C-alpha cells in the first residue's frame, strides 16, 4: 500500500525569545533567524541593557515542521528561552 503524502497546513503565530547572555549569544540567534527568514513575517527586538538580556518577538507563518525546527534550534542555544503560540492559518 502506498503512503499518501502528509498534507501540511501552515500555522500563524508568535514566538517569544529571551536571550539572557546577549553579548555571547546574539550573533548565533541572528544567524538562525536569518536561515528561517522566509517564515518570519515580522520581528521586534528590544535590548534590555540594564539586565543584559534581549527580548525578541517574531510573527511567523509556516508549517509545523519548519516552526519546530526554528524553535528547537533556538532552544538548544545556552542562555536562550523560547515560547510559541500558534494557530491554524485558514
Describe this structure in words.
This protein is of the alpha+beta class. It is built from 2 helices and 4 strands; from the N terminus they run βαββαβ. The protein has helices spanning 22-35, 64-75, and strands spanning 10-19, 40-48, 53-63, 80-88. It has a 4-stranded antiparallel β-sheet with strand order 2-3-1-4. The longest helix is centred in the N-terminal third of the chain and has 14 residues, at 22-35.
Note the topology:
Layout: E1 10-19, H1 22-35, E2 40-48, E3 53-63, H2 64-75, E4 80-88
Antiparallel strand pairs: 1-3, 1-4, 2-3
How many distinct helices?
A: 2
Given helix and strand content, the structural type is: alpha+beta
Distance between the termini: 31 Å
Number of strands: 4
Strand % is: 35-45%
- In N-to-C order, the SSE pattern is EHEEHE
- State the share of residues found in helices, binned by percent: 25-40%
Mean pLDDT: 90
* Structural Rg: 15 Å
What's the shape? elongated
Specify the biggest β-sheet: 4 strands, antiparallel
Strand order of the largest sheet: 2-3-1-4
Parts with pLDDT < 50 across at least 5 consecutive residues: 1-5
